[in-house]
């Protein structure tokens, strides 16, 4: 037993020394989260504003001008073209000159006073982000006017009615600040990538270079080798998480409503779950290239199916099932629950339990796969 | 010097199941290495050397037969074996970011060598391997030859009784190679270490007490280097003909000619009786107006013995 | 392009302008590192010339320069009277190269590889077909031409690679470590091929780190750390470059004998350059002219070590190489 601990200590020391001296990997691990964070914050916008817009005002009265002005002042619509009727609006949209078109029928003022005001917004249907934000913006604004707003999506001359979309983020995110929405998930997402990259690539590289075989022929047991790789990976992930959270809270001003302690503990379990997954990948992948490819696959799934950006509720059941297999899905929920909603443990124990089971199973499987033989 | 057996294999078989069918990488190999002996498993790439070592060490599962090291079965007691042997893998790799000193400490720790013992052994190992001045250098920055010496030192830090080396001098410069083998020689003389070396270099056979020639998974000969060379039933004549092809053609059917091998511009002729055949060969060549020069009897070399034995094996198999 | 008549090579012999390979003071540096250091030599037509040295000594770099793939830092060369630096393309049509890592396509058949290289070298029509047949015959691949290259064993692949390198009937071929790892029979057969080609007037330059293989060459150049340290026939090298003699000691107690001799060496009693175990015997290298056989025997018998035999043996090329490098 003591011998075993001794060996684990020796192995861990080696792992940490190697990690510390591998400048490239270290930079990747420490700077990538920061880079991604800023990338998401400033470059990626989920809401689109300043849409180039064509306006066809067939009333030309005070009310219609007022309405158009409100839309423009909101910042979501920029009036770039003045047209006459619906056909011209559709043409302008199809040609790509504008992303939105507003049609105000004749006698607008009169209809408004009779509580019968109508307007039509046409949105570029080939760009779903545009559609979403354009519609949300317009409907929110037109609420003030209690106008009956019709909205249609235009694509290749065809028009389709837009269904009503509710978004939970509006509820907790009245300013519609994207970062508040993204950050909790981003924290988990980054950890996923880094851990998987470290575990699969660092380990596979070791095997490729023949170091693994050399260490295999020592009394070190596979379980000991697994543990010695878990520790540095976990430490790094925790550091990364701390960096991202700190930046998020102090730089981007995201409010942290929940308990940091609870978050840390659940984060630790989450990290373990991913380390296990990364280690399993390392035993399965034969080359570094393969390991990288699997990591990229996970990244994609993480981006698309875990609820990190795109809401899961609107996905078909089978894609949701795939997302259910990834620990990130559960952590995104937990993360949002704690950071954005400030909830306590009793609301998330189920997700936490699943993560814990995942961690246990994956680490155990990794130990089993980490063979004491080469075949 | 005790005569106990340190490594043994009986009818060892290892099969790989691949998409192209079953491959028998190790085909009923039996061998034994005594305490204090240096054993060379000699053969070309793909002959099965690495596979044999790996099965003996328990790094691969065997398909049939048995093998053991120091009495511990390879399959069932791999950890007991690993505590007592030193090993350098063919694609040996040492953590390149760790310094020479740290590497030695790492392997010592893994083998539970106490700090006190480490303080004694590591400096002397560094000295032995000629690496004392490179203590603080990262292993990745050493030359090929020095890396091998470091690997050797790391494999010795826990004072094993047996050393298994898989192609340790591959691609290493001649001076380092010579130094490496001299280090092995010293280990044998001073510590009575049993050493098992797999190598494709025929000339390294001369440095072993006992040699096994391995080809396509089978041991085609086994014994001391001298014994193996004696297995070739004849004498070797060497001479340089003026016209190689004509010469080869006329030599084949001559009586007493066991084998004809080319050697650069020369011919190595294996005959049953040097004295008798020498003049006969000369006469035959004169009859065909083939000129020649420098005929003499030479020592049979390991490579020639190998070639002869392979050809005999293939003839027996009806290839 | 005319060859400068002031070119000369080591060995004190001036090269003939018509020699297929002439190299003078060739140097190549990579930053601070000198890979090839002032090398001069020449190769005669139809000669099999060996370039012997460990990995990293500068062999491949030299070949790359001779092929015009790398520019020298200093020095000049002529291959078939062509300057590789300025006229590499003209050179490539007349030179063949078999590189260390075979450039065969594993997922093509043998014949497809041959055809590919044939076309790459500009062969077509009847000539291409004829050469294909020639190569298959030379490499003993008749009947195997439709085997996937991946399924060919080492020896066949070697011959195939050689075939692909000579399909355009070059006058000079460069072979970089051509028989690494291959079984002895295939190696011998490969060398038969090389000599066959040399016999037809092709000039062959082979690099190798195998001492045994170097003995198969007509002339060998020792290269170490980028420098040419010796150049001659294997026979002459063994005579001229060996500093010292090798003594083989036969005793039933080799380990004990070694310890005793090492002690004597260390204390200065015996002027041994080297002493080590060789199987069940001991080899000792003594400086020239110190026939100390009696002394050695006495030292051993004094310690109750029986001596069954003491004899001088011929040095191997490895002994010579080491001696030359150290000297």
Structure overview:
The complex is a heterotrimer of chains A (375), B (319) and C (327). Chain A is α/β, with parallel strands linked by helices. Chain A folds into two domains: 2-43 and 176-369, no CATH class; 51-172, abc type-2 transporter like domain (abc type-2 transporter like fold, 3-Layer(aba) Sandwich). Chain A has 15 helices and six strands. Chain A has helices at 2-21, 23-43, 62-73, 86-95, 108-113, 128-145, 168-172, 178-208, 211-216, 222-251, 260-284, 288-305, 317-324, 327-339, 349-369; strands at 51-57, 77-82, 100-104, 118-124, 148-155, 158-161. In chain A, helix 6 links the parallel strand 4 and strand 5. In chain A, helix 2 runs antiparallel to helix 8 (178-208) and helix 8 (178-208) runs antiparallel to helix 10. The longest helix of chain A has 31 residues, at 178-208. Chain A starts with a helix and ends in a 6-residue tail after the last helix. Chain B has two domains: 5-228, 3-Layer(aba) Sandwich (Rossmann fold), CATH 3.40.50; 233-299, Alpha-Beta Plaits (2-Layer Sandwich). Chain B has helices at 49-57, 78-84, 100-110, 115-128, 144-156, 174-191, 225-230, 244-251, 274-287, 302-316; strands at residues 5-18, 21-34, 38-42, 64-69, 72-73, 85-88, 162-166, 194-199, 210-215, 218-223, 235-241, 257-263, 266-271, 292-298. In chain B, a hairpin with a 2-residue loop joins strand 12 and strand 13 (266-271). The radius of gyration of chain B is 23 Å and the shape is elongated. Chain B starts with a strand and ends with a helix. Helix content of chain C is 34%, strand content 25%. Chain C has helices spanning 59-66, 88-92, 110-120, 125-138, 154-166, 184-199, 211-214, 234-240, 254-267, 293-302, 317-326, and strands at 21-30, 33-43, 48-52, 74-79, 95-98, 172-176, 203-208, 219-224, 227-232, 245-250, 274-278, 281-286, 309-313. Mean pLDDT of chain C is 86; it is low at 1-12. In chain C, strands 5-6-7-3-8-9 form a six-stranded mixed β-sheet, with helices on both faces. A four-stranded antiparallel β-sheet of chain C has the order 11-12-10-13, with helices on one face. Chain C has a three-stranded antiparallel β-sheet with strand order 2-1-4, covered by helices on one side. In chain C, strand 11 (274-278) and strand 12 (281-286) form a beta hairpin. With 327 residues, chain C is of the alpha/beta class. The chains are: A alpha/beta (375), B alpha/beta (319), C alpha/beta (327).
